Amino acid sequence: MDNAGPGPSPRIGQPEVGPAAAERDEAARAAAGDTAAFERLYRSHVGRIHALAARMLSAEEAPEATQDVFVRAWQRLETFRGEAQFGTWLHRVAVNVILTRRAAHGTRRSRFVEGDEVLETLPARTGRSDLGMDFESALAALPGGARQVFVLHDIEGYRHEEIATLLGVTTGTTKAQLHRARMLLRRRLAE
Amino acid sequence: MTPTHDRITDRLSEWLDGGLVPAEHAEVEAHLAGCGDCAAIAEELRAVRTEAARLGPIAPAADLWPGILARIQEESARAVDTGEIEPARATADGARRGRVVRMTRRQPPVWSFTLPRLALAASLLVVLSGGMVWLMLTNGGGRESAVARRQEPGRQEGPAVSGTPAMAAGFDVARYEATISELEQVLVTHRSELDTSTVRVIEQNLATIDRAVEEARRALAADPASRYLNTHLASQLRQKAQLLRQATSLVVPS
């Protein structure tokens, strides 16, 4: 599964530290049981994976989900054959883990609110000039389905066909959800 | 908004992403050229997409590596205990026979967890352990294994005797019991730093686990050669150690 199926667009997966070859070497050492090598890979990629988890799930769930991703990656290291960059492979593992987790917890997610009214519950802007923080807050308040698609498409760079396969829906659905997310967010940024 | 505006705005994202067929693309472009409202929406959507592309990594508030390492080590130990993999051996050609976890650095695990999760973990533990032990007892015991010395019946927790079933199964009970003892001392020392509700949850959970451990020991007393029960006892002790680490992390910085 980890080496098959959709993956992020080319701009995704660029190693944050060191060349791709060095990361492949680290992955090979980790696959042989070297936890120090795996820790170095963790340090390089934890920010991106944690961000993905926070945006796809929630800030509260993100630390545990991030741990799940790296434990899963450790378990599946032997399937990383170096054809893609390690970051790309890891990202694919992360999306699978997060979506599985989300599906398992779906019925208990009290924040899964559908409808435009969800943004009305956000606290008033504090006047901070940090647009990034406002955007993250607005993103967190999006309905679950729209947020998933928006994160995967506009932040992580997946194509609609890839997202549709991941989520088990049609591209018509993913396009509608993306548009919905953007329309909700634009209201927030326009305030 | 008129139906025409709605129809146009509904397709603005696809227009923005270049996903419309030429005829539709031209229709939207023509409308935007003459409609300030729709053009403004289009620009706002473009701003959303631009802002999204700028979002970067988010570092976790706490270092997650200790918890990850602990889980990796836990799984490796469990895999060896159950015979899922053999301990790696160095060979002349360097071929790998099993995953070796070289503990180049051992850090005290730090968990990001909540008290409800701690309580749930303990509840699941006692349900699983009680059920498995019941199955073992009603099925007449576990699998045969190498002959091992029998522990004293009703024995309370304490240093393992050399040659006990747990040692025969390849699991060092003494090591885990020593770790548990140390962690319990830490908790006793720092108990006053915890609020009463936290102390209550921790004590309840430990009591739950202790009952599970005692059940496992009683089952072993009836069937000391059972490899499953020895492995089960080891798992209980490991779980207790892990819970104690989680509890002590509340008061002792990692």
Based on Cα principal axes, name the global outline of chain A: elongated
Total beta strand runs of chain B: 0
Q: Largest sheet of chain B, if any?
A: none
Radius of gyration of chain B: 29 Å
Count of separate DSSP helical elements of chain A: 8
Whole-number average pLDDT of chain B? 70
Q: Identify low-pLDDT runs of chain A.
A: 1-5, 107-129
First and last CA, distance of chain A: 43 Å
The Rg value of chain A, from CA coordinates, equals 17 Å
CA distance, first residue to last residue of chain B: 58 Å
- List the total number of helices of chain B: 10
Q: Can you write the helix and strand succession of chain B as a string?
A: HHHHHHHHHH
Most extensive protein-chain contact, per-chain counts = A-B, 43 and 43 residues
In short:
The complex is a heterodimer of chains A (191) and B (254). Chain A is mainly alpha-helical.
Outline the structure in words.
The complex is a heterodimer of chains A (191) and B (254). With 191 residues, chain A is mainly α. Mean pLDDT of chain A is 82; it is low at 1-5 and 107-129. In chain A, helix 2 (35-56) packs across helix 4 and helix 5 (131-140) crosses helix 8. Chain A has helices spanning 20-31, 35-56, 62-75, 86-105, 131-140, 144-155, 160-167, 171-190. Chain B is mostly helical and 254 residues long. Chain B has 10 helices and no strands. The radius of gyration of chain B is 29 Å and the shape is elongated. The relative contact order of chain B is 0.12. Chains A and B meet through helix 2, helix 3, helix 5, helix 6 and helix 8 of A and helix 2, helix 4 and helix 5 of B.
